[in-house]
From TrEMBL:
Keyword Isomerase attributed: yes
UniProt cofactor(s): adenosylcob(III)alamin
Molecular function via GO: cobalamin binding; metal ion binding; methylmalonyl-CoA mutase activity
Top-level taxonomy: Bacteria, Bacillati, Bacillota, Tissierellia, Tissierellales
UniProt protein name: Methylmalonyl-CoA mutase
Signal recorded as keyword: no
UniProt xrefs under Gene3D superfamilies: Cobalamin-binding domain
Signal peptide: none
B12-binding domain span: 3-132
Amino acid sequence: MVPIRILVAKPGMDEHDRGARILSYRFREAGMEVIYTGLKQSPAQIVAAVLQEDVDALGISILSGDSKKLLSEILSLLKEKDLFEDLLVFAGGIIDEKDLPALKEQGLAQAFPPGTDLNDVILFVDQHIKIDKE
């Protein structure tokens, strides 16, 4: 079976990447291939990486407080490139609950708040991608 390929991205000026690095490590432990963008990526850079790397999932880590603006821009660019058919998009970090309905309408599959058990994130990705890979 082909391993799940996942891109973990850090948009904006957020320099808090410990969680993204730990999650990347845990995804690898779970048998997934992980590409980590590093810090301070623009929405356009993230979408370009999704295209270039041909990933199954995009995990976006935001702790800067610009979550609605950054996520909306990323989701809009993904839609422009017609990437939602084969891409699971989820986010983690500081995301205002009142913004979630609009973000989910734009294509965000799930948002995980700080303190979420990493096993829950891995299980979520594994369950949603395996359905498509089988």
